[in-house]
């Protein structure tokens, strides 16, 4: 029996390798990837599927690589992809109605109509087409444009040749063929996600003032607070951790990388896992954001990289001084400039088309808000224009392609410098030779502290120090952003101004600024728009630095140590506060604390539970859920009241500390948490996984990890539903995880995990298989080299064609 199975495996592997080799030309570094195909036909690729539905796509050139990628993504995620293409075409209202909410995956637009007005305006104005024509490196390379063309063809071929089984779009008329322009437009939407994408509601609602009183604004102080909340990476549904260790800390002198991006678990910002190969040209494994044609986060034979959402503010505002006689005319150095009108029409389901006018200036579109908390009224004398330098950036895919082909962290740095395409992320990398690398290389408006000092309006003098959001005087030419000589486009910082740290025992980021990338080598000297210096770090950053610094000090690290760190599930907030709460609780007269509304609550049982809690958020941890619900409620307590020892810039990882149990909000938070759990019928010492879970195909999967404020590396942002049993779904958190190192072979030592699995289709065998692994804290061994792919017990080889 064993011999027969062995022969079967060898036969399947041989067939796979024969199929691939027969499908491809000889692999030569000089020739591979250069062959072109006329538009309109003949594209194909070989896809070899291994465990968990991971496709290994092999193609002759970039167009055919895009074809295989588009096909394989459609096979797993056709409904989510189709929904996104509908978004960037401005057709959501046509099929779903104007008032329905978007899923926020490609913008902050609150309604389909708002989203459509913006994206239809982008389409009507030819914005993406113009960017596609810009010569590289300022515009996309020919190779990337070929992947876009191929992706569209692959997606179209899949929907033409297959029956859709996903209930989300089965039989839907809105699943239609797409073009390369649609693929590029989706990339554009991701680029402006942190800029114009934040202000879509304000952009599409902006209209000149009428006789009616203008909408009320906010004070500078209120604006500063709102901007800080709006732009905080820790409060977003995207975050991440990443750490790279250099060879001085590892068992063999080679580098190590652990990437742990925190992204939404549903919708258009999910990752999708694959390997892309053009023999002699490209060979890379990792994950792509849906709709992306290249690998977003991943590794090749020599380099591994990950990203974390950065603190750099990717937009700024220009406050316009208007002509008193005409609010659509603004003044620059006393000269009148008329705003540009863009009439945009959107088809609407069951109703007449809606037409609205958008107003544009030399700085960008006029906007009347940056979220509900930050109104920017257009009055007879003042309006605000939004500048987003990523609105001329279609270079993200090329930057990622440069990483995919890199052979060292130096090559990663070269790609960042040459392409300058990363809009809102930091880059952390390690390589086979033992180098570590961090760069906050973002496309940011060139707001220097000096410019902000000279040109900020009263509103900007409040928002810039608080959040990095500059509000500049748009009436003065000397307040223009200017250019750096090494910048690929005007109005942004060049690579020489970016925070960078190389070849340290560790470089780490958990969505705070670059300051404590390595706590022993703080980064300073960058402009406020990049982030803060010498300010309090998040609980997650503090815990992460403690962990990775300890690992570096211990030394002799291996990939297995990275795997342990991912699932250590240590709760730094619990280590700082649980003992103090338990001690205070035990001393309460009658064991009673006062909850909201003055209601007395018996919390005596909570004292014992918190004292015995192991300070972790594993799925079997007892007391974790109680502390979680308590700690969330302490967010209402000002930091100055919550801690006895305040933040000290000289001791930033260990401060603030010492929970102030005398603060009124602390006792109230415990009483409310206890009352909440009892009302839901949840035991105070229930195992976390009993009440933090997801349901997949009727099966409940316990999920470990915890929320941002607890400081958990393995971040989980679950959705509370007390009537449903606790946390019954995960909205965002750990997504595509990779732990990568090297030994003396040519094959990297890599373990990966896509927490929510490859497909959102509940009928797919890969709807929840990796989610079950995640629930059990198990990993996938990466099959990167040919011999490992051939040995997969689940190997399935498919040759896909543009037409049959």
UniProtKB/TrEMBL annotation:
**UniProt keywords, alphabetically:** Hydrolase, Signal, Zymogen
Q: One Pfam family for this entry, by name?
A: Penicil_amidase
Gene3D superfamilies documented for this protein: 1.10.1400.10, 2.30.120.10, Glutamine Phosphoribosylpyrophosphate, subunit 1, domain 1, Penicillin Amidohydrolase, domain 1
**This protein's superkingdom?**
Bacteria
Q: Which InterPro entries has this protein been placed in?
A: Ntn_hydrolases_N, Penicillin_amidase_A-knob, Penicillin_amidase_dom1, Penicillin_amidase_N_B-knob, S45
Residues annotated as signal peptide? 1-29
Keyword Nucleotide-binding listed: no
What family does this chain come from, according to its entry?
A: Belongs to the peptidase S45 family.
Name the PANTHER family for this protein.
ACYL-HOMOSERINE LACTONE ACYLASE PVDQ, PEPTIDASE S45 PENICILLIN AMIDASE
Q: What is this protein called?
A: Acylase
Q: What is the lineage of its organism?
A: Bacteria, Bacillati, Actinomycetota, Actinomycetes, Kitasatosporales
């Amino acid at each position: 029996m064993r011999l027969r199975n062995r022969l079967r495996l060898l036969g399947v592997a041989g067939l796979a390798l024969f199929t691939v080799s027969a499908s491809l030309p000889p692999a030569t570094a000089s020739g591979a990837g250069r062959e072109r195909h006329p538009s309109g036909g003949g594209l194909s690729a070989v896809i070899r599927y291994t465990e968990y539905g991971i496709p290994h796509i092999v193609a002759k050139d970039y167009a055919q690589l895009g074809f295989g990628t588009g096909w394989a993504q459609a096979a797993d995620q056709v409904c989510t992809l189709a929904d996104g293409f509908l978004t960037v075409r401005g057709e959501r209202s046509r099929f779903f109605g104007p008032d329905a909410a978007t899923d926020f995956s490609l913008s902050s637009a609150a309604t389909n109509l708002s989203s459509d007005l913006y994206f239809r305006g982008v389409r009507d104005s030819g914005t993406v087409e113009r960017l596609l024509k810009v010569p590289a490196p300022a515009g996309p390379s020919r190779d990337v444009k070929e992947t876009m063309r191929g992706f569209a063809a692959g997606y179209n071929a899949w929907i033409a040749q297959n029956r859709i089984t996903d209930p989300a779009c089965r039989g839907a008329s809105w699943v239609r063929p797409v073009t390369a322009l649609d693929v590029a437009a989706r990339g554009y939407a991701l680029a402006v996600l942190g800029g114009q994408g934040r202000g879509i509601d304000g952009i599409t609602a902006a209209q000149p003032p009428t006789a009616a009183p203008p909408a009320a604004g906010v004070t500078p102080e209120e604006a500063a607070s709102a901007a800080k909340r709006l732009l905080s990476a820790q409060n977003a549904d995207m975050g991440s951790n990443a750490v790279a260790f250099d060879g001085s800390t590892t068992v063999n002198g080679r580098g190590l990388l652990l990437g742990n991006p925190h992204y939404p678990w549903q919708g258009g910002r999910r990752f999708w896992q694959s390997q892309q190969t053009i023999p002699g040209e490209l060979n890379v494994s990792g994950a792509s954001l849906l709709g992306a044609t290249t690998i977003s986060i991943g590794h090749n034979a020599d380099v591994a990289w990950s990203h974390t959402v950065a603190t750099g503010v990717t937009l700024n505002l220009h406050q316009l001084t208007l002509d008193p006689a005409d609010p659509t005319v603004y003044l620059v150095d006393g000269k009148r400039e008329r705003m540009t009108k863009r009439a945009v029409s959107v088809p609407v389901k069951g109703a007449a088309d809606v037409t609205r006018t958008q107003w544009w200036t030399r700085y960008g579109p006029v906007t009347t808000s940056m979220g509900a908390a930050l109104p920017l009224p257009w009055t007879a004398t003042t309006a605000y224009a939004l500048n987003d330098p990523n609105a001329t950036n279609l270079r993200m895919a090329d930057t990622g392609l440069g990483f995919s082909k890199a052979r060292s962290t130096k090559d990663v740095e070269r790609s960042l410098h040459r392409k300058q395409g990363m809009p809102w992320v930091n880059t952390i990398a390690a390589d086979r030779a033992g180098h570590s690398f961090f760069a906050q290389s973002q496309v940011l408006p060139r707001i220097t502290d000096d410019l902000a000092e000279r040109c900020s309006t009263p509103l900007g003098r409040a928002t810039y120090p608080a959040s990095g959001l500059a509000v500049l005087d748009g009436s003065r030419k000397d307040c223009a952003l200017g250019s750096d000589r090494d910048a690929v486009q005007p109005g942004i910082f060049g690579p020489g101004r970016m925070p960078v740290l190389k070849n340290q025992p560790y470089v780490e980021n958990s969505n705070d600024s670059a300051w404590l990338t390595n706590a022993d080598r703080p980064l300073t000297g960058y402009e406020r728009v990049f982030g803060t210096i010498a300010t309090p770090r998040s609980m997650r950053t503090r815990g992460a630095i403690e962990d990775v610094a300890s690992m570096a000090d211990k030394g002799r690290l291996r990939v297995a140590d990275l795997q342990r760190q991912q699932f250590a599930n240590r709760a730094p907030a619990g280590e700082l506060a649980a003992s103090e709460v338990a001690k205070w609780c035990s001393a309460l007269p009658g064991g009673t604390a006062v909850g909201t509304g003055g209601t007395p609550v018996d919390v005596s049982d909570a004292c014992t539970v918190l004292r015995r809690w192991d300070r972790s958020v594993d799925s079997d941890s007892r007391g974790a859920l109680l502390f979680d619900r308590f700690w969330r409620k302490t967010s209402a307590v000002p930091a100055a009241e919550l801690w006895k020892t305040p933040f000290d810039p000289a001791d930033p990882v260990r401060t603030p500390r010492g929970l102030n149990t005398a603060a009124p909000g602390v006792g109230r938070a415990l009483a409310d948490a206890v009352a909440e759990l009892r009302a839901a019928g949840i035991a105070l010492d229930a195992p976390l996984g009993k009440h933090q879970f997801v349901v997949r195909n009727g099966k409940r999967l316990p999920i470990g990890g915890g929320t941002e404020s607890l400081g958990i590396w393995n971040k989980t942002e679950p959705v509370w539903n007390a009537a449903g049993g606790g946390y019954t779904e995960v909205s965002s958190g750990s997504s595509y995880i990779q732990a990568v190192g090297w030994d003396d072979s040519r094959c990297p030592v890599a373990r990966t995990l896509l927490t929510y699995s490859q497909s959102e289709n509940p009928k797919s065998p890969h709807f929840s298989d990796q989610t079950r692994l995640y629930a059990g804290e198990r990993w996938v061994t990466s099959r990167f080299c040919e011999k490992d792919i051939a040995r997969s017990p689940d190997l399935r080889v498919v040759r896909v064609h543009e037409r049959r």
